[in-house]
Amino acid sequence: MTPADAAELLTLCAAFDRRTIGETDARAWAAALNGVPLDADTREAVARHYAETEQWITPAHVRRIRVRIREDRIGAAHPVYNGNPNETGAQFAEHRRAQLAAAADGTLPARTITQAIGAEPSHEVLALAAGVGRAVDEDERPYMPTDVADQLAKQRYGARRRAFPELEVDCPHETCRARRNSRCKAPSGRELRDHTHDKRQRTYTEHVSHVMCQPPAPRTARARHTAGGRR
Predict the structure, then answer these.
(1) 216 vs 204, 207, 212, 213, CA distance in Å?
(2) For residue range 154-209, what is the model confidence (pLDDT) as tens digits?
(3) Cα-flanking dihedrals φ and ψ of residue 114, to 5°?
(4) Is the dihedral of CA 161, 163, 167, 169 positive or negative?
(5) Fewer beta carbons within 10 angstroms: which end of the chain, N or C?
(6) Burial grade of 221 (CB within 10 A; 0-12, 13-18, 19 or more)
(7) Phi/psi zone of residue 158: left (φ > 0), alpha (ψ -120 to 50 degrees), beta?
(8) pTM of the prediction?
(9) Helices in 78-117 by DSSP H: which ranges?
(10) Reduced to 3 states, what is the DSSP secondary structure of residue 48?
(11) Is the dihedral of CA 116, 122, 126, 127 positive or negative?
C-alpha cells in the first residue's frame, strides 16, 4: 500500500470517526499495511470494524478483519486440488496457492463440499430421481384397501372383547361412563389400554350372573300329524 492509498483509506476511516489526516498519518499507515492492497476487501474491513465497535480503527484491525473476510470465502468455496501426477512438488504448491487465492478473491465461487469433490449427482440422475414416486391426487388414497382395513378392525374388536369381556356393558364409573364396546377412560380423557374400572367389572359379573340364573325359555310344542297314521 502506497502513502496515497493509505491516505484514501484514512479518508474512509474519517467518515466514521471524524479523525484528522496528515501526510505523516498516511506514511505511517502505508508502512504498517505494507503488502496489503487498497481493494474492496480492505475497504470492507473498515466498514465491518465500525459496524461492530466505536473504537478507532488501526492498521492491525484492518489486517485482521481483511484476513477473516478472505478466509470466510475460502471456507465457502471448499477448494480441493487433487494435483497432477506429472507435476513437481513446487508446481503442486504453486497451483494450490493459486487455487486458494482464487477462492479468497471470490473468483472461485461458493459451493458445497459434494460439488467441490465432484460427487454431486449429474443432471441425468437428478432428472430420474424427480420422476420417482407418484403424483399426489386431490383425494387422499387409503393406506390399505377398505376390505383389508375392515377385516383387521374386526380382528382387533374380537381380541379386545376376549381380553375385556366387561366391555359388553356400560361403565358406571362416575368419571368415565364409557358406552358399551368402548374402553374405559381416565379423568384426563385418555383411554385405558390395559384395564377397565372395577365398577364395570362388577357390573359385568352381575350381568352374567343374572343371565345364568334365568330359566330357559319353554320349548314350543309342535303339532303332530296323526291322520292316516298309527296310534
Answers:
(1) 20, 16, 9, 9
(2) 666 556 556 678 888 899 888 888 888 888 888 888 888 788 888 888 888 887 77
(3) -65, -35
(4) positive
(5) C
(6) exposed
(7) alpha
(8) 0.50
(9) 89-105, 113-116
(10) helix
(11) positive
CA distance 205 to 196: 13
C-alpha cell at 106: 471470490
Radius of gyration for the chain, computed over Cα atoms and rounded to the nearest angstrom: 44
CA distance 214 to 29: 112
How far is Cα 19 from Cα 56, in angstroms, rounded to an integer? 9
CA distance 69 to 15: 21
Instruction: Give 49-83 pLDDT, tens digit per residue.
Output: 999 999 999 999 999 999 999 999 999 988 888 88
| Location of C-alpha cell 368402548 | 182
Say which residues have a Cβ less than 8 Å from residue 13's Cβ, sequence separation at least 6.
Answer: 19, 46, 57
CB environment 71-94: b (16+ within 10 A), e (fewer): eebbeebbbeeeeeeeeeeeeeee
Residue 223: what are its φ and ψ, rounded to 5°?
Answer: -70, 140
19 contact partners, CB below 8 Å, separation of at least 6: 10, 13, 56
